[in-house]
Structures are given as C-alpha cells and as structure tokens.
C-alpha cells in the first residue's frame, strides 16, 4: 500500500545566508547538514538544517535570494511551521533562550491542541514549538555538537499551517488523493494527519479570504511530503495527474527524487523519496561543512564558488 509517511522537508526564502546560518545553527541548534546550491539556479545557496544526518521529517531548507523583497502576508500560502520539542519544560527553556537572544516570541500557549510557543526569525518566518509528548520522527538522531542540551533539542517538524480561501478544496486533495485523516473541523479550521495519531505528518488548514500572499524573505516556498522510494513516487505522479493537477514529473535531486504540483488554491507541494539522503556525497562527521554539488554541476564548481559569498569567516 502506498502511503504518505509524514513531512519530508519544507523550503523557505532568505535574503542573507550568513544570518540564516547563525539563527538556525547557532540559536536553534540545528545541524547544517547540507550546503549546496539551487539546482535550477546555481547562483544561489540552498541550505539544509536538521538532525544529525538531515533525516526526512527534520529538514528545514532555505534558498538565498539577496535581492528578495518583503513578504506581504495573505491567504493561499503556507503560513507557519511547527517544530517538535520533548516536554513542556522545553518550552520554558526556549522562552528564556529567545529572551536572551532578542527573538520575537509569544507567551507559552496552545496550538493544535498542544502546549506551544510561537516565535519568528529575523525575517519574519513564523514558527511554533510544539510539545511532542514522545512523538518524533522515528529515526531522529541527536546532534551531539548542538548548542542546545539534548533534553530540549528540536526533534523535527510537527504541524504545518496552510491558509487558503477554499478550505474544502485542499481538504479533498489531502483526504481523497493522499489518504490523510481529517481529525477535526470548525468553520474556519481543519486538522489533517497523514498517519493518524502522528503529529509529524500533521497539516493545519485555516480558511481566510482576502489577497493572496506575496512571497519574499521569510516566506515558505513549498512543503515536501514523504514517500518511501521511486516506485511509490511514480504511483503518486499518476494520482496527481488523474486528479487533473499538472505534475512536474519525476525530478532527480541527487539527494532524493521528487515531483511538484500545485493544488487548487495554489499551494505548492513536493513529493520526495526518503533516500538516498545527504550522506551520499559526504560522511556523517563532516556533513554540511563544505559546498556539495550534484554530479551534473561538479564541472562548474569554480564558476559557482566564485559567484557565492562565503557563509563562514575565513
């Protein structure tokens, strides 16, 4: 049986890779597991942060676009990322850390029926820490060199929020095409899970009329959802097309294979395979420490490196 086993990664836009690296690696304590480039435009960095190996379900990815403008928030967009932490004591730890570093944050509250702490990075990307209650990506690996104590480390992605004009349209795509379970529904919000009872595949959909969000720095470009292998990916390619959506077809991203489609509200989804993963061209000890390029770009390394600004000080 072909199933969506949760979130794979989520991709955002940043204006400044150096500041982005500082926030996600040094402040949030995630591991930078891959420093590469946008394969469709190798003039820009593509950075991945996650657990020890960048396991599917733990990856936050950023495209650096130095000339990007502001995000004008609105509807028909992915509007918030949930990140899992182990306990309610972790929320207290993180609230103090955010205060120490001057990070914009809320009081401890609840979100999607869980204890929560909302916060934003310096570019206005909205995130929320959620208590996992023991749920985390099964293969999440502790990053021993993290700036965060093990008992409070981020354990991967939880609820991802989408805000759309036509909630029913997105609901039908999630349930009828991909087999998500609808957990709850009110007039303006619904919660779905790819595997019932598992928060690491949860999508919170909010209904909002008004202008469409104009993306910029701190906006979310797309959500990638997980499949096991290329055989499953080919199955979902057929399902997407049968529903009348345009599919990109299967694309080889070297670290995984994937396809892209937009649902009826314009939300961009990627469907991505679990493997081969970020260790295909690196070892676990030194992941993310140098610029890695897929084989088809390796011959352009000198040109690509010349056009990129170093992230770390020499």
Automatic annotation (TrEMBL):
Gene3D superfamilies given in the database record: 2,3-Dihydroxybiphenyl 1,2-Dioxygenase, domain 1
Matching PANTHER family: RING-CLEAVING DIOXYGENASE MHQA-RELATED, RING-CLEAVING DIOXYGENASE MHQE-RELATED
Lineage top rank: taxon: Bacteria
Alphabetic keyword roster: Dioxygenase, Oxidoreductase
Name of the protein described by the UniProt record: Ring-cleaving dioxygenase
Pfam families found in the cross-reference section: Glyoxalase (PF00903)
InterPro entries: Extradiol_RC_dioxygenase (IPR052537), Glyas_Bleomycin-R_OHBP_Dase (IPR029068), Glyas_Fos-R_dOase_dom (IPR004360), VOC_core (IPR037523)
Gene Ontology MF, one: dioxygenase activity
Domain VOC: 156-274
């Amino acid at each position: 049986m072909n199933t969506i086993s949760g979130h794979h990664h989520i991709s955002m836009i940043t204006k400044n890779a150096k500041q982005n690296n500082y926030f996600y690696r040094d402040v949030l304590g995630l591991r930078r597991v891959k420093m590469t480039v946008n394969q469709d435009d190798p003039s820009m960095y593509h950075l991945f942060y996650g657990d020890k190996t960048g396991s599917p379900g733990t990856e936050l990815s950023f495209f650096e676009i130095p000339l990007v403008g502001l995000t004008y928030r609105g509807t028909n967009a992915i509007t918030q990322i949930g990140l899992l932490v182990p306990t309610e004591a972790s929320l207290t730890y993180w609230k103090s850390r955010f205060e120490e570093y001057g990070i914009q944050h809320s009081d401890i509250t609840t979100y999607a029926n869980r204890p929560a702490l909302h916060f934003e990075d310096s570019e206005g990307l909205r995130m929320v820490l959620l208590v996992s209650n023991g749920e985390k990506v099964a293969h999440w690996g502790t990053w021993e060199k993290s700036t965060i104590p093990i008992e409070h480390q981020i354990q991967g992605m939880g609820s991802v929020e989408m805000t759309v004009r036509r909630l029913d349209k997105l609901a039908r795509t999630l349930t009828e095409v991909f087999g998500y379970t609808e957990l709850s529904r009110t007039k303006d919000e619904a919660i779905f899970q790819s595997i019932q009872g598992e928060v690491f595949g949860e999508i919170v959909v909010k209904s909002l009329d008004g202008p469409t969000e104009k993306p910029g720095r701190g906006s979310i470009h797309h959500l990638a959802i997980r499949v096991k292998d290329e055989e499953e990916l080919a199955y979902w390619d057929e399902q997407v097309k049968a529903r009348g959506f345009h599919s990109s077809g299967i694309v080889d991203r070297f670290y995984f294979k994937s396809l892209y489609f937009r649902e009826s509200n314009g939300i961009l989804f990627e469907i991505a395979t679990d493997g081969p993963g970020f260790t295909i061209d690196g070892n676990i000890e030194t992941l993310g420490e140098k610029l890695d390029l897929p084989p088809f770009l390796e011959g352009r390394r000198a040109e690509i490196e010349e056009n990129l600004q170093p992230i770390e000080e020499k």
